[in-house]
Amino acid sequence: MRVFPKLKSLSRAVHEEQEREHDEEKNNAGGSLCTSLTVWRKSLVMSCKGFTVIDSYGNLVYRVDNYIGRPNEVILMDASGKSILTMCRRRKLGLLDSWFVYEGEVGNQHTRSNLRKSSKSPICCVRKRLNILHGNTNVQAYVYRGTSHSDKRCVAFTIEGSYAQRTCKVLDECRRVVAEIKRKEASTKDVSFGIEIFQLIVHPGFDPAFAMALVLLLDQMFS
Q: Does the pTM of the predicted model rise above 0.85?
């Protein structure tokens, strides 16, 4: 298994941007700060597809390594490779794209029967918005509490915007922004990161790992 040698930065340009963001954080250290993560849509393992996530210090925070293109199970790992969250796809009649999110690792339990037998309970269900003819067309997906994925009263978070354009917001029940996906802007005009490298901004009180899990599910739903 061949692994990319540089873990501290994705490229010289990205590293310079991380240093600039870190300096800004130090200058604004008086109040509650958002967590700024740089997300690279590339696995550290050369034979895999996945994600590499670094913080404003240039340290590796999260990683994802997928050995198949459209997996039914996606595992978010920390820098050491320990499983943090596992996302299991569940399709109903081949239409609704729904995912259960579990803490830690649940193994190969993405089939319907195995999900029922699992000793672990999902912390939430994330479902892609299907009907584009009615309601708020700006909605990308809903995050439901536990296994509920039909009752609107069980919606904990709503994801709005466009993941394809890397402009999304995660809103809580009071429509407060708890996390944002943004295009990464370079301070140098000659550098363009495109959509493969982008920012995940996590507001105070929201779990960065869970925010990254939502990014992974949006990528499965809309890429």
A: no
